[in-house]
Write a structure and sequence with these properties.
Bound molecules: zinc ion
CATH topology: Arginase, Chain A
Oligomer: single chain
Structural class: alpha/beta
Keywords: Chromatin regulator, Hydrolase, Metal-binding, Nucleus, Repressor, Transcription, Transcription regulation
Number of domains: 1
Radius of gyration: 21 Å
Number of strands: 8
Order of helices and strands: EHEHHHHEHEHEEHEHEHHH
Subcellular location: Nucleus
EC number: 3.5.1.98
Strand order of the largest sheet: 2-1-3-8-7-4-5-6
CATH class: Alpha Beta
Shape: globular
CATH superfamily: Histone deacetylase domain
Strand content: 5-15%
Number of helices: 12
CATH architecture: 3-Layer(aba) Sandwich
GO molecular function, one term: metal ion binding
Pfam family, one: Hist_deacetyl
Largest sheet: 8 strands, parallel
Length: about 425
């Protein structure tokens, strides 16, 4: 047992595991119920502040998405879907992103949990916030993509930006975090760092190492394209130096970590060879910087392994060792046959296609680009007073969030004039009992 100092808030809606994307669809929300059962039966709840989360509404979702897209999500159902054939095409709601019973409620639950996690971090109500139902990184402003409808990550980051001058987004899902990168491609207020499989038309097809960001956001998008079969040792060999450099050069004031579990070996859709321990080491390393942290789920298509991984990572976040044997009291005990352990042997389906030289070259490429930040004078490296940055009235904001962010940049610059250093950031006034 470690000495846990951090307050860890954990968001779980008991209904979120009851949704079905449809027969044969690889995305199974039930994995969330299995994860939660392990969290409870391992006794981790004793170290968590467990919340039944807020449900995001139309206004919350349209902070990023277009109104006509969210309006469509609210209205469409399996019963009336035949009246919406044109909209289905317009919003990319085909095979990957089907219309299913309760779709809008599902989006509302997972998005509300991420948003509330961001609010609690903003108000210093916790040090770490966990929402395993969130992390749907492919959703776009105008359309669904890759099993994702509403981008809870973008919405949570927009909330963090009310109080935080620089937010770091880290994505360890096997797929490129394209929706989040695209949303913040033009701004230096958010740095996105995605580690993913790239090449051979692997979904979504973006995320090569030369996607760096644009305009004010140039060098603030970091992409780490990987080949199939990467194992723990290779992954850690790149993850730690890259994140260390990012921390050093970007100095984020909040971190959002997307923990997609489809990067584990044996995933139904993935082709990496990470173990739960290797995956978890990324979580531990990110936590070690002691910066306010929002931890989210994401992909993961072998449900028993997703549950193992996220329960284990919950344990890491509360500094609690967990027994190798799965508690037999969990109602899903039979899912973990034949070994009934937390860390079964990793299934390796493909050889590691990432040579040491290839990985070293990528790390060097990322480091060279990060060094460019030193030469780019920017408002973002100034300290920011947390007070006075709450913009409740966003009626004047441009629907384009990129402009919205630029506007906040200006305000932060103005507020900064009155503060010399971090010691002036008195957060006491910000504590909000409702937060
Ligand atoms: Zn994925």
């Amino acid at each position: 047992m470690g000495g846990q100092k951090e307050i860890v808030a954990y968001f779980y809606d008991p209904e979120v595991g009851n949704f079905h994307y449809g027969q044969g669809h690889p995305m199974k929300p039930h994995r969330l119920a299995v994860t939660h059962s392990l969290v409870l039966h391992y006794g981790l709840y004793k170290k968590l502040q467990i919340y039944r989360p807020y449900r995001a509404n139309f206004h919350d979702m349209t902070r990023f998405h277009s109104e006509d897209y969210i309006d469509f999500l609210m209205r469409v159902s399996p019963q009336n879907v035949q009246n919406y054939t044109k909209s289905l095409g317009q919003f990319n709601m085909a095979d990957d992103c089907p219309v299913f019973e309760g779709l809008y409620d599902f989006c509302s639950m997972y998005t509300g949990a991420s948003l509330e996690g961001a609010v609690k971090l903003n108000h210093d109500c916790c040090d770490i916030a966990i929402n395993w139902s969130g992390g749907l990184h492919h959703a776009k402003k105008f359309e669904a993509s890759g099993f994702c409808y509403v981008n809870d990550i973008v919405i949570a980051i927009l909330e963090l930006l009310k109080y935080h001058p620089r937010v770091l987004y880290i994505d360890i899902d096997i797929h490129h975090g394209d929706g989040v990168q695209e949303a913040f491609y033009l701004t230096d207020r958010v740095m996105t760092v995605s580690f993913h499989k790239y090449g051979n038309y692997f979904f979504p097809g973006t995320g090569d190492m030369f996607e760096l960001g644009h305009e004010s956001g140039r060098y603030y998008s970091v992409n780490v394209p990987l080949k199939e079969g990467i194992d723990d040792a290779s992954y850690i060999q790149i993850f730690k130096p890259i994140i260390e450099y990012v921390m050093q050069y970007y100095r984020p004031t909040a971190i959002v970590l997307q923990c997609g579990a489809d990067s584990l070996g044996g995933d139904r859709l993935g082709c990496f060879s990470l173990s739960t321990k290797g995956h978890g080491e990324c979580v531990t390393y990110t936590k070690s910087f002691g910066i306010p942290l929002l931890v989210l789920g994401g992909g993961g298509y072998t449900p028993r392994n997703v549950a193992r991984c996220w329960a284990y990572e919950t344990g890491l976040l509360v500094d609690t060792e967990m027994t190798h044997d799965i508690p037999y009291t969990t109602e899903y005990f039979q899912y973990f046959a034949p070994d009934f352990t937390l860390h079964p042997e990793v299934v390796t389906r493909s050889e590691n296609g990432n040579s040491r030289q290839y990985l070293e070259a990528i790390v060097k490429h990322v480091q060279d680009n990060l060094k460019m930040l030193e030469h780019a004078p920017s408002v973002q490296m100034q300290d920011t007073a947390p007070d006075g940055l709450k913009f409740e009235d966003d009626s004047e904001l441009d629907p384009d969030i990129r402009l919205h962010i630029k506007e906040e940049d200006k305000r932060i610059e103005a507020v900064n004039e009155f503060y010399d250093d971090d010691n002036d950031n008195d957060k006491e006034e910000l504590k909000d009992p409702q937060g």
